What we know:
This protein is α/β, with parallel strands linked by helices. Helix content is 43%, strand content 15%. Strands 3-2-1-4-5-6-7 form a 7-stranded parallel beta sheet, with helices on both faces.
Amino acid sequence: MKDLNNKVAYITGGTKGIGFGVAKALLKHGMRVAISGRSQESVGQALKDFNDDSVLGIVSDVSKMEDEKKAIAEILDKWGQLDVVLANAGVGHFAAIDEMTDKDWHSMINTNLNGVFHTLKASVEALKKSKGYYITLASLAGTNFFATGAGYNASKFGVVGFTQAAMLDLRKYDIKVSTIMPGSVATHFNNNEPGEGDAWKIQPEDIGELVLDLLKMNPRTLPSKIEVRPSRPDKK
């Protein structure tokens, strides 16, 4: 995309963390951004933090197809187009498989994996019209398994596979599809409270710069799967 000014992006899980960081980066380049979160409280607080008329806040649970259809309809009703979608919403529960609860398993699969399907399915016709870009936020856990990660690994391995197959399906419409697979990021994920101890991690704004790089890439070239990790891991 040569000119990002007035392009429209939708970011799920955009009220904090990576989604919030990406939204800030896109706004700086003149884009209009819709963010979604599960609660009116989180969306309202994010809108106060942005304090920008170019941001639209939407309450949507990505695990529900109807919520995502309504979210896309609201965006199109307001701005008439949709150019970029970042499926970022995600949750993590970590436990050995013999201790993992049914509730936690389904929470991860429904949000992390079903959610990216719902978001793409709801937005794909709008992206066909704009010849837009669909990006999923996966994880290095989508290729590297670890103990206590069975549910999270399953969801993120699924996101990577889903995104790569969708890329092959949709490129004939000039829709670009990529997945970003970060390592440790300084966010509130898994009940972390970001602080000075997270300075060694990838920062949300770094992912924002990465998304901008993808959007500005020459249209003949598609980085379809991007692994990104801290350059100097914390020494413990």
